[in-house]
Design brief:
The protein is mainly alpha-helical. It is built from 15 helices and three strands. The protein folds into two domains: about 55 residues, no CATH class; about 220 residues, no CATH class.
């Protein structure tokens, strides 16, 4: 090495080439290119956020959960009733006409097929709330694609609720209320509802009592229907109804068995409204449009 090598070479300073401007991203709702906010799993512009429905914008109260559920019910009630009734029709037929069949069949059916049907209802409800066109085939397809997650995560949530019920009734009820959003999260969010249990716990924080009161109002219908069903079944064994024609009794039990899941639709609408109201604006998802924007973000 000679002395010349130790002398710094003169010349123009070497500057890093500016980074290429990132590709602008379109709003997932309107398609416009603008600064976006992460509205849970969707990248949405400020204009679309301003157009959110009242159902999505206001925090949940007992009153707006009930009025919102009536509104949703008026939009999807018939479709939802059809979905849950058809989903439970095979198992109800088995229970009515083959009463000696294993009881675990009903449990397995309820944890699989019925849950996927509920996913379809929640997807329909969210489309109605956001003013989108209702499409039963599209909602069914979305729920079927998420079927494994719906079944597995719902089962995990069920185990959690059962564990808390072993402690005391109140902790079990509170845990169940904390986990009511897992199904709509799974079918409505673009990432497939990863961490759905954690998300439901976070979003329901502070809203569980409100939800309980709203569910209690609609729950009266289901409890009344269940009581009538059980009362009729008991009367078959203890009164003169047991002498009625077998075909008539079977028909009544079949209709009653299909009505029980249908009576759950109003409470599912409460859950759908609760889901819409607890969606939260998170951190801005600002996409730099220029090189200077990128340099500003690096600072």
């Amino acid at each position: 090495m000679n002395d010349a090598d130790l002398v710094p070479k003169l010349g123009a300073p070497q500057l890093d080439a500016p980074e290429a401007a990132p590709e602008p991203t379109a709003c997932e709702r309107c398609g416009n290119f603008a600064d976006l906010d992460n509205y849970d799993a969707q990248q949405i512009c400020d204009a679309c956020i301003a157009r959110l429905s009242e159902l999505e914008r206001d925090p949940p109260t007992v009153g707006n959960l009930l009025s919102g559920s009536v509104w949703v019910l008026s939009r999807i009630g018939l479709l939802a009733a059809l979905v849950v009734a058809l989903a439970d029709l095979p198992i109800v037929v088995i229970e009515v006409f083959f009463p000696e069949s294993p009881t675990f069949l009903s449990t397995v059916w309820g944890m699989t097929v019925s849950i996927v049907a509920q996913g379809t209802v929640f997807h329909l409800a969210q489309r109605a709330i956001r003013g989108e066109e209702l499409s039963l085939p599209a909602s069914m397809r979305t729920s079927l694609e998420a079927a494994s997650r719906l079944v597995i995560i719902n089962a995990l949530a069920g185990f959690q609720i059962f564990f808390f019920l072993l402690l005391l009734i109140v902790p079990g009820v509170m845990r169940a209320l904390s986990l009511v959003l897992i199904l709509p999260i799974i079918v409505n969010e673009a990432d497939g509802g990863k961490d759905a249990i954690a998300r439901s716990l976070a979003r329901m924080s502070g809203h569980r009592v409100t939800a309980l009161l709203a569910y209690a109002v609609w729950g009266v219908l289901w409890v009344g229907g269940l009581s009538a069903y059980l009362g009729f079944s008991l009367a078959l064994d203890t009164t003169a109804l047991g002498q009625a024609p077998t075909e008539l009794v079977s028909a009544v039990l079949l209709v009653a068995g299909l009505l029980l899941p249908v009576l759950m639709v109003p409470t599912m609408c409460v859950t759908a409204v609760l889901y819409a109201k607890t969606l939260r604006l998170r951190e801005p998802a600002h996409r730099p449009q220029t090189v200077q924007d990128a340099l500003d973000l690096d600072d």
